[in-house]
Design goal:
heterodimer; A: 114 residues; mainly beta; seven-stranded mixed beta sheet; four-stranded antiparallel beta sheet; B: 115 residues; six-stranded mixed beta sheet
């Protein structure tokens, strides 16, 4: 089954404690991205990756890091989480071929930073 | 700046009734527009895609329209069901001569269907 898998689904952590949210896709997609979703603001892109070892900032990259060492994995790293990073996070992947590639989203990770 | 605005922000309707959600965008040049359905606590799932040359497209009880001249799209839901309760997100992709174009997300319309 084609899917994007995020882990963990729920996470509560304390300010300053480094954490990683994993994302894996099994569709051999080149493009992967991370979004955060906050009430009234919709989905905002944090980082994206066009392919292995190619990453770039989205609209709200501050406080986040990513890496793309393998095509299927795109982890999101919070080196020193702060309460304003409490949010619902989604990973998505899509092909870069064709004019209308559909984005496939993971189930989401609800992060609370206290 | 590319923007996608959706209205209403939220909507409550009775089961069995119809409703229409609106999406206005300023993304230019335009490539395509997708409507996504996002159930509570889950990731968005694509419902339909509209390209520049398409005016109407149906997917079961969902019908999307596009007016590329006025830069407006609508999603009409017929004979609503309780399972239609979700957020509906309009996503617009720009177009250029080559390469992958970044998409712009609307903030969504939260629909609640009540018995």
């Amino acid at each position: 089954e084609a899917q994007v898998t995020q882990n963990p689904r729920y996470l509560i952590t304390v300010t300053g404690k480094k954490l990683t949210v994993t994302c894996s896709q099994n569709m051999n997609h080149e493009y992967m991205s991370w979004y955060r979703q906050d009430p009234g603001l919709g989905l905002r892109q944090i980082y994206y990756s066009m392919n292995v070892e190619v990453t770039d900032k989205g609209d709200v990259p501050e406080g986040y890091k990513v890496s793309r060492k393998e095509k299927r994995n795109f982890p999101l790293i919070l080196e020193s989480p702060s309460p304003n990073q409490t949010s619902l996070y989604f990973c998505a992947s899509s092909s870069t071929r064709g004019a209308d590639p559909e984005a496939f989203f993971g189930q989401g990770t609800r992060l609370t930073v206290v | 700046k590319n923007q996608v605005e959706q209205s209403p922000q939220s909507l409550i309707i009775l089961e069995g009734k119809n409703c229409t959600l609106q999406c206005n965008y300023t993304v230019s040049p335009f490539s395509n527009l997708r409507w996504y359905k996002q159930d509570t606590g889950r990731g968005p799932v694509s419902l339909t895609i509209m390209t520049f040359s398409e005016n109407t497209k149906s997917n079961g009880r969902y019908t999307a329209t596009l007016d590329a001249d006025t830069k407006q799209s609508s999603l009409h839901i017929t004979a609503s069901q309780l399972s239609d309760s979700a957020s509906y997100i309009c996503v617009v992709r720009g177009r250029n001569s080559g390469g992958y174009q970044k998409v712009t997300f609307g903030t969504g319309t939260k629909l609640q269907v009540i018995p």
